[in-house]
Amino acid sequence: MSVTYVDAIRDAQEKLLRDDPRVFLYGQDISQFGGAFKATKGLAEAFPGRVLDSPISEDAMIGMAVGAAIEGLRPIVEMQFADFSSIAFNQIVNQAATHFYRTGVPVPLTVRLPSGGTPGSGPFHSQSMEALYAHYPGLIVVTPATVSDAYHMLLDAVALDDPVIYCEHKFLYRWLKAPRINGDGLPIGKARITRPGKHATVVAYSAMVHEAVRAADRLKEEGGWEIEVVDLRSVKPLDMDTVLASVARTGRLLALGEAFPWGGVTAEVVSRVCVEGFHLLDAPPLRLNSRDTPVPYHPKLWAAHRPTPETICIELRKLLTF
Amino acid sequence: MSVTYVDAIRDAQEKLLRDDPRVFLYGQDISQFGGAFKATKGLAEAFPGRVLDSPISEDAMIGMAVGAAIEGLRPIVEMQFADFSSIAFNQIVNQAATHFYRTGVPVPLTVRLPSGGTPGSGPFHSQSMEALYAHYPGLIVVTPATVSDAYHMLLDAVALDDPVIYCEHKFLYRWLKAPRINGDGLPIGKARITRPGKHATVVAYSAMVHEAVRAADRLKEEGGWEIEVVDLRSVKPLDMDTVLASVARTGRLLALGEAFPWGGVTAEVVSRVCVEGFHLLDAPPLRLNSRDTPVPYHPKLWAAHRPTPETICIELRKLLTF
Amino acid sequence: MLKARLLESKLSSLYKAGKIVGGVYLGKGQEAVSASLGASLVRGRDIFAPLIRDQAGRTAFGESMLDCTRTYLGSVLGPMKGRDGNIHRGRPLEGLPAMISHLGTTVSVVAGMLVARRLKGEMAGVVGATCVGDGATSTGSFHEGLNMVAIENLPMVVIVANNQFAYSTPTDRQYACEDLLDRAKGYGVAGHSVDGTDMLACSKVIGRAVTLAREGAGPQMVVARLLRLSGHGEHDDGSYVPNTLRAGNLGRDCLEVATAQMTEGGYAGADEIERWKTEFTDEVQAAVAQAQQEPAPDPWDEEWFACKSTTGRL
Amino acid sequence: MLKARLLESKLSSLYKAGKIVGGVYLGKGQEAVSASLGASLVRGRDIFAPLIRDQAGRTAFGESMLDCTRTYLGSVLGPMKGRDGNIHRGRPLEGLPAMISHLGTTVSVVAGMLVARRLKGEMAGVVGATCVGDGATSTGSFHEGLNMVAIENLPMVVIVANNQFAYSTPTDRQYACEDLLDRAKGYGVAGHSVDGTDMLACSKVIGRAVTLAREGAGPQMVVARLLRLSGHGEHDDGSYVPNTLRAGNLGRDCLEVATAQMTEGGYAGADEIERWKTEFTDEVQAAVAQAQQEPAPDPWDEEWFACKSTTGRL
Ligand SMILES: Cc1ncc(C[n+]2csc(CCOP(=O)(O)OP(=O)(O)O)c2C)c(N)n1
Ligand SMILES: Cc1ncc(C[n+]2csc(CCOP(=O)(O)OP(=O)(O)O)c2C)c(N)n1
Ligand SMILES: [Mg+2]
Ligand SMILES: [Mg+2]
C-alpha cells in the first residue's frame, strides 16, 4: 500500500476534523462529491455538518472563512483550482491578510490552492499563484513538494494562527507516491536539502523539486557533478539560512520555479542571496521560470513553457562551466 | 502658470478624447464630478457621452472595457484607488492579459491606478500594485514619476495595442509641478537617467524617484558623493540596458521601491542585474522597500513604513563604504 | 441541435479513446435552449458569447465545425493555435468571444462590445447574448455584469440554463430563491421562463426575447429549466443526479422531443431526419479527420510572447 | 442619534481645523436607520458590522466614544493603535468587526461569524447585521455574500441605506430596478421598506426585522429611503445633490423628525432633550480631549509584523 500526495492531503484533513472541533471544510463540490480531485472524499459522511458545499462565490467563501476564523474556528477553504482564487483575491489580501495587524485578532484560516500545470489544462487551470500572495503582508505561503510534507504542512498550516495559502501541486496529486507518511519534524519556515551536493545549488519548490532532482541525476551521470537541491517548502517565510548555507557550500545558485518569469519566488531568492550572500557566489546566479505567456493548452506547448530536466540541465551546465 | 502631475493626466485624457474617436473614459464618479482626484474634470461636458460613470463594479468595469477594446475602441478605466483593482484582478489578469495570446486579437485598454501612499490614507487607499500586474504575462505596467511622463506615457499607453496598467502616484498629484509639459521623446520601455552620478546607482520608479534624488542631494553635500538615479518609467518592460549601463559606470546598486518587500520590482531588478551583470558589481547590491505590514494609517507610522531620504541615505552609505 | 449532438458524441468517444487531452464538456440535453439562441442571432451582426454547454448554439450561430475539432484536437491551424483548448475558443472579431474559465465574466464583456457598438454608432438592430448556468449566477461577476447591462439598457439577452446542478452541487446549495427568474425584476430586466427540454417552446420564448432586445425593449433574461444529460465533463459520470429527476419532465431528451415535434408538426419527415443524421455524421467525421491530420503546434515555431506591442523580453 | 450627531459634528470641525488626517465620513441624516439597528441588537451576543455612515448604530450598539475619538485622532491607545483609522475600527471579538474599505465585503464576514456560532452550537437567539449603501449593492461581493446568507438561512439583517447617491453617482447609474427591495425576492430573503427619515418607522421596521431574524425567520433585508445630509466625506460639499431632493421628504433631517416625534409622542420633553444635548456635548468634549492628549504611535515601539506566528523576517 502506498500513499499519494492527494491522499496525504485528504488524510490530513481527516485527522484535523477528527482531532480539532474548530476545523471545518468549505468549498465547491467537496461534500458528497468529495471535491474535483477527491481531496475530501468520504469526509462529509464521516463528519456530518462540517464539510460544506459552497456556491460558486470565491469572494464570499473567503469572507465567510474570515468571519468564522474571527470567531475562533479553523476553516479550510478548497478553491477548485488555484486560478479561481483570483476572484477571492481581494478578500484574501485585504480582509484576511490585514486583520491581525489592524485589529490584533488573528484569522487562522487555510486556503488550499490546487496549483500548477498539467498537460491540457490550459491558461485557467494551471496557474502558480504563490508569488502574488507572498507579496502581501500577513500571509504565510507554503508549497509542499513531498507526500509527507503535503500531510504535515497541512496540519501545521491549520495550527498556525495566521492565514495560510497552501499551494498543492496538481501534477503531484496521483503521480507522487510514498510508501507511508513519515514525520521529519521540519516546521513551516524551514527548507530541506532534498539532495546534497557540492558543485551547485538549485533552489526549488513544489513540483519543480522533482524536476531539479531529475536534472541533478542526469548531470551526475553525465559528468559526476554533485548538484544540491534545496526544497524551500514555504516561500513565505523563506528559509534564507538553509539557502545561504547551501550556496556557501557550492558557490553556485540556480533558482527554479514554475511560475511566470517577472518577479516571483526566483527573483526573491536570487536577490536575497545576492544582497545577503554576495561573497558566497563564485559565478553569477541564474534563474529559470516558465515563459512569459499564459500557460498554453497543448501538451507540446505546455512542456516547452515550463522548466524541464533538459532546460534545467542547460542552465546548470552554464553555471558549472562558468 | 504651472502644470501639476494630475493636470497632466487630465490634459492627456483631454487630448486623447479630442484626437481619437476610439477613446472613452469609464470609472466611478468621473463624469460631472470629475473623479475623486479631479483627473477628469470638465471632460464629461466637453465630450458628451464619452465619459461615463460606472457603478461600483470593478470586475464588470474591466470586463466591459475588454469587450469595447475587442471592438476596436480604446477605453481608459479609472479605478478610484489602485487598491480597489483587487476586485477587478481576475478580469485584468485573466480576461484582458490573456486575450491577445489566446485569440490573436489585441485588447488595447488602459487602466489608471491611483497608487501609493499619502499620510492618513491607511491600508486600503495606499497600495502599490505594480508587481502583481507585472507578474502576469500580457500586461504592460508603467509608473510615471514626472509631470511630463504622466502626460506622454498616458498618450503612449493608449496608443499601445496591449492592456496597460498605468500606475499614477497620488502623492505626486498636486505636489509635483512643472512649468510646462515637454516631450523628451522616450518611449514606454525606456528608463531615464534622472540624475547622473558615478559612485552608486539607485534604481527607482514613481514617487520614489524624488526621494532618491533628495537622498542623492544630501550625500552630495555630505561627502561629495555622486549618486546616479535611474527612473525605470515602466516596470514591465524593464529597461535592463539602461540599468546595466548605469551599474557598469558605478559598480554599486540600490533598488528602491515603495511596495511591499517580498518580491516586487526591487527583487526583479536586483536579480536581473545579478544574473546579467554580476561582474559589474563592486559591492553586494541592496534593496529598500516599505515594511512587510499593511500601509499604516497614522502619518508617523506611515512615514516609517516607506523609504525616506533618511533611510535611503543609510542604505547608500552602506553601499558606498563597502 | 442534431449536428451538435453528433459532433459532441464524437468528441466524447475521442476523449474516451484518449485522443483529446484536457476536458470535454458537453451540452447534451441543453441543445434546444442553446440552438434556439444561436439560431435567433445573426452572424456578422450580433454577438454571442457561449459557455461550456453551447455547442448547439455555436453551430446554429454558424461557427465552423473545424474550429471545434481543431481546437479540441490541438491543431495549430485552429483559431486558438493550440494555445487554448476545447470550449475556450472563439472568433472575437466575428462576434464570437472566446470564454475564459472564470464563470460569469462573459456578461460584462458582451456589455462592453455593445457599448462599443453604441459609441461607434453601429448599434442599430444589434443583439448581444450569453449563456450561463445556475451555478454561474452565484458569481459576483455575473451580478456586476448584469447590473451594468441593465444600467446601460443594452440590447442583451442573458440565458440562464438552470440544469439543476453546478458540477455536483444541487441548486439548494446555490441559491435560495424560488426561481432564478425572480432575479430579473431586481436587476430591472425583463424575465422569461421556458421549459428547456421543449424545442418549440425554446425557439418561441428565446426568439421573442431576442426580438424584444433587437427592437429596443432593453435587456432580457430567460431562465430555462432542464437537466444536463451528461456528466459535468466527460470525466464525470454524474452519478449524483437522482434518478427521480432523470425520470421526470426535466430529464426528457430535448433532441427526442424535438424530433417528435418536427415529425408531428410536419416540419420534417422521419427519413429526412435520418438523411440529416447521415449527412452530419459524415461532416463530423470529415472535420475530425482533417483536424487529426493537421500539425500540432511546434514549440520552436511558437511566438512566445503575450503582448502585441513588444516582441522582446519584458 | 443625538449623541452620534454631536460626536460627528465635532469630528467634522476637528477635520476642518486640520486635527484629523485622512478622511472623515459622517452619517448625518442616516442616524434614524443606523441607531434603530444598533439599538435592536444586543452587545455581547449579536454581531454588528457597521459601514461608513454608522456612527449612530455604533453608539447605540454600545461602542465607546473613546474608541471613536482615539481612532480618528490616531491615539496609540485606540483599538487600532493608529494602524488603521476613522471608520475602519472595530472590536471583532466583541461582535463588532472592523470594516475594510472594499464595499460589500462585510456581508460574507458576518455570515462566517454566524456559521461559526452555529457550528459551535452558540447560535440560539443570535442576530448578525450589517449596513451597506445603494452603491455597495453593485458589488459582486455584496451579491455573493447575500446569496450565501440566504443559502445558509442565517439569522441576518442586511440594511440597505439608499441615500440616492454613491459618492457623486446618482442611483440611475447604479441600478435599473424600480426599488432595491425588488432584489430581496431574488435572493430568497424577506424584504422590508422604510422611510429612513422617520425614526419611529425605522425603529419599528428594523426592530421587527431583527426580531424576525432572531426568531428563526431567516435573512431579512431592509431598504431605507433617505438622503445623506453631508458630503461623501468632509472634503466633499455634495453640491451634486439637487436642491429639489434636499427640499423634499427625503431631505428631512431625521434628527429633527425624531425630536418632534419624541416631544409630541410624550417620550421626552424639550428640556429633557436639551439636557441630553449638554450632557452628550460634555461627553464628546471629554472623549476628544482625552484622545488628543494621548500619545501617537511611535514607529520605534511599533511591532512591524503582520503575522502572529512569525515575528521575524519573512
Ligand atoms: C469562478 C469560477 N469558479 C469555479 C469554477 C469551476 N467550475 C467550472 S464549471 C462549474 C460548475 C458550473 O455550474 P453551472 O454554472 O450551473 O453550469 P453547468 O456546468 O451546470 O452548465 C464550476 C464550479 C469556474 N469555472 N469559475
Ligand atoms: C469596491 C470599492 N470600490 C470603490 C470604493 C470607493 N468608494 C468608497 S465609498 C463609495 C460610495 C459608496 O456609496 P454607497 O454604497 O451608496 O454608500 P454611501 O456613501 O452613499 O453611504 C465609493 C465609490 C470602495 N470603497 N470599494
Ligand atoms: Mg448548472
Ligand atoms: Mg449611497
Overall structural class of chain C, as computed from helix and strand content, comes to alpha/beta
Largest sheet of chain A: 7 strands, mixed
Distance between the ends of chain C: 46 Å
Mean pLDDT of chain A: 97
Q: Please tally the β strands of chain C and state the result.
A: 7
Q: Name the ligand types.
A: thiamine diphosphate, magnesium ion
Strand content of chain C: 5-15%
Overall spatial form of chain C: globular
SSE order of chain C, one letter for each helix or strand: HHEHHHEHEEEHEHEHHH
Helix content of chain C: 40-55%
Largest sheet strand order of chain A = 3-2-4-5-7-6-12
Keywords, separated by commas or semicolons:
heterotetramer; A: alpha/beta; Rossmann fold; 2 domains; globular; C: 314 residues; 5-stranded parallel β-sheet; two-stranded antiparallel sheet; 41% helix; binds thiamine diphosphate
Structural commentary:
The complex is a heterotetramer, with two copies of chain A (322 residues) and two copies of chain C (314 residues). Chain A is an alpha/beta fold and 322 residues long. Chain A folds into two domains: 176 residues, Rossmann fold (3-Layer(aba) Sandwich); 129 residues, Rossmann fold. In chain A, helix 9 crosses helix 10. In chain C, strands 1-2-3-7-6 form a five-stranded parallel β-sheet, sandwiched between helices. Chain C has a two-stranded antiparallel sheet with strand order 4-5. In chain C, helix 1 packs across helix 11 and helix 2 packs parallel to helix 8. The longest helix of chain C is centred in the C-terminal third of the chain and has 24 residues. The relative contact order of chain C is 0.16. The chains are: A alpha/beta (322), C alpha/beta (314). At the A-B interface, helix 4, helix 5 and helix 10 of A face helix 4, helix 5 and helix 10 of B. One thiamine diphosphate sits at the interface of chains D and B.
